[in-house]
Prior knowledge:
The complex is a heterodimer. Chain A contains 8 helices and 10 strands.
Amino acid sequence: MSDQLLLNAQALTKRYAGMAQPAVKSFDLELHRGEFVGLLGPNGAGKTTTISMLSTLIRPDSGQITIDGHDAVTSPQGIRHSLGVVPQDLALYSTLTLRENLTFWGRLYGVHGAPLKQRIQECSEFVALTDVLDRTIDTFSGGMKRRANLAAGILHQPDLLFLDEPTVGIDAQSRHQILSNLRQLNRNGMTMVYTTHYMEEVQQLCSRVIIVDAGEVVTQGEVASILTDHECSHLEELFLKLTGNQLRD
Amino acid sequence: MRPSPFINFFNQLLAVFVKELHLLRRDRGGLAVLFIMPVALVLIVCLVQDNILKVSGATTIKMVLVDHDQGSIGQAIIEQLNETGSFELSVFDEKMSFEQVKQSVSTGVWQAGVYLSAGMSEQLKRAVDEQVKASLRAEPLAAPLTTVSAQYFFDPAVQGGLQAGIRGVLTQLVSQETLKLKMASFQTLLPKQIERYVSTELGPMFGQVLAQKPFAIQFPEQESHLLQAVQINAKAVVITPTSIQHNIPAWSLFGIFFIILPLSGVILQERSQGVFTRLLLIPGQHFGVLLGRLFAYLALNMVQFSLMLMIGFYILPLLGTDTLQLNGQGLSYFIVAFCSGLAACGFGLLLGIVARSPQQAIMTAAVAIVISAALGGIMVPVYMMPTLMQSLSVVSPLGWGLEAFQILLLRGGTLHDIVPQLLSLLICFFLCVFISWRKLRHLK
Lengths: 249, 444
């Protein structure tokens, strides 16, 4: 991690039409290059809305976002080439092969020709899917689909990667593969914002954690530090202590 | 190094174009809807309607004439029916009876039949002479004359308009023959009557003088028409509205508009998965994505339209129909198909953004296309609809497309003549894209 500020979000607020309460209110975040930040929260806490605003998918009602010195609210097009997103849902065409999918997404991000072929090879090797490059996505298992989803998100070598529950619903082997991939990417300098419901993943991967509930930041800091501050032995205990035991359907 | 915005736009356009073609290549259901359905429809409907148009008089009428008379009337009627060029005439004599011809026509072997009974010419000539003699004597007939009839029948499937037309032709021919006989009779009997009158009224001497220098009368030849009705065509080129000329453009449009199904289906698939999110986050202004998608589907529309034209040129004539005639405006037809494709793609885009599920999109698209086709005159020509439906037909994009095709195909029109229809289709496209864009912003 470097001291160079990559993302600076201040007082982000977003209220959806017809909703009484804002989905996110007064959210602040400073993200340095090479950081791996975990965003935790129960269902409906505002994690996806926060990631959507930070990744320029939706505009905040108020607040500012600066990414790599560019105003991401007023001119999001200027920084999108340096952002990558791995959405919660599979963001690939199921009737296309993995190679066709990666070629498509690569070209949309301005990668083409020999560099594109090279990146497809590197990314498929990285997620251990080289052997199935010419198979259609609908023939993949759940874990393979998630890994393919990750490959599409990193193909254009973004500086900042947003991951929205990338390991949900897959087997232990695939999850292990994805987590080691992410660790490797972060070691290589990629900054990441990661949301998940798996506390142990955050504890393993993230240098910093932000816990949100009802659209507001409940606590944030280095994992060890906030565990000590709240006198908890592990992250799940801290999470339940801060967000309560009520079901969030 | 990042590519320039123009290169980026072009790369995105190409990427989406190739991706859409890959998706369509693997969508067998979509391909069937786009290619097999319109081809099957155009083949079936053209062949079915080819017969219907025959019974409605758009093509040569098959007629049988049984001439038991073997006199001058039969010969004259045969000559004049052949002269019209509208009849494919089969002539029989004693070999076919009255009952046989009636039966054959009623079962559709021929669309119309004429029966001339034995001795008809002779009877008519006698009746005409009687009438002329009575006229010259200025006396009423001693007894009413027996009416001589040339009988005709129709296949019950022949439509009323065509029946009226054939009835008119036959009535005219019969009247013409009667007039000819009357004139011939006058030509013979009038001088004799004058001679008799002069001898009786002025004395035998005058009669002898008249006999030495007989009074002659010569009616003009029948061919010298003093008044005739002449049909004038508005355009130099006039093509008969056959089933092919109507159905090839009509069902091509129907097929073109079915592009809505795969297009809205892909967008809904993207929306239901994370693809849409990722697409919204790509660098650039998304015009490349929109245009690449449109070009892919429009290219498919053009292939589809070309295929339909090939069927009209080569396949349907092999099955016994007429050949499609394009009236020398090839490019204009493709411009109409292109604008229709744009309107269809616009609606597909809108449906893909607005619909909540693939089922809803399929249902809405199918109902909208069929209603628009019905209103637009794809199934029944607009001029045959009730006034209310005719006024509703102006809102059908398929109707605009069909109108443009008909102006080019049947009315000898040019690109200039179809500008209003093309503008309507383009406005429809831009309106759909605008609403989609607004809705997309709302969705985000």
